[in-house]
Amino acid sequence: MPKNGKPKGGRPSRNFEPRYAKKTSFHDRHAGGRPGAGRPDRDNRDERTDAGDRGFSSDRSRTSDRGFDRRPGSKSPSTGSGQAGQRPGSRSPSHRGYRPAEADGGAPKRRWTDQERAGRDEARGIRGRAASGRREAPHHRDERSQDSRGSYGERPRYGNDRATGDRRYEDRPRRDERGGERPRFQGDRPRFHSDRSESPRYNDDRSGDRRSFNNDRNDRGGDRRSFNNDRNDRGGDRRSSGRDDRPARDDRRSFNDRNERGGDRRSFNRDARPARDDRPARDGRPFTNDRNERPRHNEDRPRFDRDERPARDDRRPFTRDDRTRRDDRPRFDRDDRPRRDDRGATDRARRDDRAQLPSRDDWNKQAPARFEPTEDVVHERLEAQVVAAPEVEGTTFADLGLGSNIVETLKNMGATAPFPIQGATIPSILEGRDVLGRGRTGSGKTIAFGAPLVESILTSQAGKRREIGRAPRAIILAPTRELALQIDRTVQPIARSVGLFTTQIYGGVPQGRQVGALKKGVDIVIGTPGRVEDLINQGKLDLSDCRIAVLDEADHMCELGFVEPVQRILRHTQEGSQKLLFSATLDREVAALVDEFLVDPAVYEVAGEDQDSSTIDHRVLVIDHRDKAEILTSMVDRDGKTLVFARTRAYAEMLAEQFEDAGIPAVSLHGDLNQAKRTRNLQKMTSGRVNVLVATDVAARGIHVDDIDLVIQADAPDEYKTYMHRAGRTGRAGRSGRVVTLITRQRQRRMNELLERAEIDAPFEPARLGDDVIEELAGRMPSDADLTA
DNA sequence: AAAAAAT
Predict the structure, then answer these.
(1) How far apart are CA A273 and CA A216, in angstroms?
(2) Averaged over A2-28, what is the pLDDT?
(3) What is the pLDDT of residues A109-150, one digit of tens each?
(4) Which of A172, A396, A577, A678 is deepest in the core (most CB within 10 A)?
(5) Cα A447 from chain centroid (whole Å)
(6) B4 C1' closest Cα residue
(7) How confident is the model over A525-541, as pLDDT tens digits?
(8) Within 7 Å: CB of A420 and strand B?
(9) Domains (ranges, CATH) in chain A?
(10) In this structure, is the CB of residue A787 within 7 Å of any atom belonging to strand B?
């Protein structure tokens, strides 16, 4: 069952496989029903500790093989999915694309021909190995472009195809259909797409179209953004009142004061904030200056809004009118926030709500469509016990209560003395208290919860260890698979040192091995919500004996779409289980969970670990949208490791391809890649085989890659927290780093607001292609301004 | 928009 002699890379995973190549049970059935046929994950196996499900791999391989064979002229009945390996026949009939295929069918390869296929991951993998000479621009480029194109194209095409395909082929369906196969038909499509990437047939007509289409899309994308930006900007303007946030800032700082503030705060805030809202009154404030323009707009608008809005929400009016309103916030928030649903729970916590509200109103007025992103709110800070760094000086991990084996392991991992956050949380966790921990990105949070967690479990289960089939005693949840993997890499050695076992439970890979590990018995589960819940529901994961639950990036896990599964999972843990919530941006957004699951939590944050003490140099380049692509290419053409953030998966893919086309080796990381590819691409960046990684926010939180000295935000983030996390990918462990954000003129205000919320100072500089500033920021031309230089 | 299960 091992791999059928196929090299691991062998099975190509289509870049976007999972999603676009969705197969349904239907497919499997027709295809010969191999489970997992669609799953690409072979590579994962490699990384996994345990042997993978070989069965799966082999199946896959076969499948894919078939797929290949099939492609040429095959017609596969069911779907055209390449994987299903339908031989001839089926495809064509059902697909509209069929014909072309047949035509092509004669010749296995069409336009795509070898290259294209090669382009497929498979070929790619092989080549890659064969020729390390990727570097060559031409070569490299070809490979990559093919690859990416194939995959990348898929998506766009997908959409397109559908659209066009439907149109064009509407007739066909019937033809094909010929039998009420439509159902199939649809099912096929997805594959179809995938096939396409592989299959030449479409290519000509479509490929051309597609590409152009894609381009269009891209462009559109760009347009949209700009559009959004505009909107946003507007929003911003109006929001000015929204900016009340700053007051919020103030609050944050005085965070501790909150308690007292309680009531005061509001009043307090009002004073401060009001200024913002009522800038006129507060003219004195510095902020106003920044927002010079806004104030006016805002003021005007806000009021305006009120008048108009009264109908909408009384709340806003409230807010704006008096701070008193603030008191009302709760309602306010709710009402306004309805959209933000998630926050509903935490509404009260949000202080900025009111401020933002105005903006919304404005927003709504102006843009009825309201498809803009949710507001970027600064939640109240949690009351926290501030830990001063000096307090932990001279303290050792052993002093904190960790056993010698663990201390030794930590030492081997390079953690010789506890960081402040660790010094604070470890004792409390060992005491069994619920803990909320906030530490700057890269401040050692994983060990802060991982080490004491292992110690606690060890202590609690002394005597009955390693019982076969024992249920896990602890679970650690993370928002992304990569982060779950990374956490395991830190926690596993610690656990192993005392005889405890960990296992990763996350999606995108076959369940087999994970379930197998659970059957053998593990002590600590580390995973992502989806698969964890899935296995719980399948009865394969029993958390009833789970006495410690950790949420990393807790605030993110409390966002809409994430919090519900998390809540359900936590409810499966042992009653009264200890809960540990960690994040660099921990705030009251986690209130929903805190209220339900935590008992008298200890809250810690580290003094002085704010952005001011950061080793990161923040810069903002104000550019023309049309120069964006070239400026980006110019900036990533450098020596150090560069991480580029894009807002969408498609744009991330496009940029990576663009860089490759320019002869700059680059890989992408986003949710449209199959897990094998995600893992592989991240590995390439980590190992230094490529120095440019283009990612979506999947890589924004927690992911640690050594030596990233430049983070470029091709798309400015919508939330200040996102900015902070993205920026946190560099400047780790006290090293210097730089974050460059590209924005258009229209976005300046909004960006300014965001930076204020994040409490980050960053100069805005206009830049055009070829400007020295770009050379400088890329590190090609050190200058005085170059702090890191 | 993205992420998180799978079929």
Answers:
(1) 44
(2) 36
(3) 334 444 444 344 433 433 333 333 333 333 333 333 333 333
(4) A678
(5) 22
(6) A530
(7) 999 999 999 999 999 99
(8) no
(9) 8-201 (no CATH), 223-366 (no CATH), 385-606 (3.40.50.300), 614-778 (3.40.50.300)
(10) no
**Number of Cβ atoms within 10 Å of the Cβ of A607:** 14
A736 vs A515: which has the higher pLDDT:
A515
Strand B closer than 7 Å to the CB of A25?
yes
The Cα–Cα gap between A700 and A713 comes to 11
CA distance A493 to A502: 9
pLDDT in tens, A605-648: 876 655 556 788 999 999 999 999 999 999 999 999 999 999 99
Distance A670 CA to B2 C1' (A): 9
- Using pLDDT thresholds of 50, 70 and 90, give the confidence band for residue A184: very low
Q: Structure tokens of A623? A: 């550019």
Q: What is the CA radius of gyration of chain A?
A: 27
Better-scored residue on pLDDT, A478 or A276: A478
CA–CA separation, A187 and A27 (whole Å): 8
Please state the φ and ψ torsions of residue A114, each to the nearest 5 degrees: -55, -50
Protein-nucleic contacts, chain A 327-356 to strand B, CB < 7 Å: none
How many residues in chain A?
789
Cα–Cα distance for residue pair A773/A786, rounded to 1 Å:
10
Which nucleotide, over all strands, has the C1' atom closest to the CA of A564?
B4
pLDDT band (50, 70, 90) for residue A91: very low
Token pair for residue A238? 């109006």
| Residue A173, helix vs strand vs coil | helix
DSSP state of A548: E
Q: How far apart are the first and last CA of chain A?
A: 55
A143 contact to strand B (CB, 7 A limit): no
Contact indicator for A95, A74 with CB cutoff of 8 Å: no
Mean pLDDT of A670-696: 95
pLDDT tens digit sequence for A304-319 = 333 333 333 333 332 3
| Distance in angstroms: CA A309, C1' B7 | 46
Give CA–CA dist A723/A713, Å, rounded: 9
Pairing of strands A616-623, A737-744: parallel
Q: Are A276 and A784 in contact (CB under 8 A)?
A: no
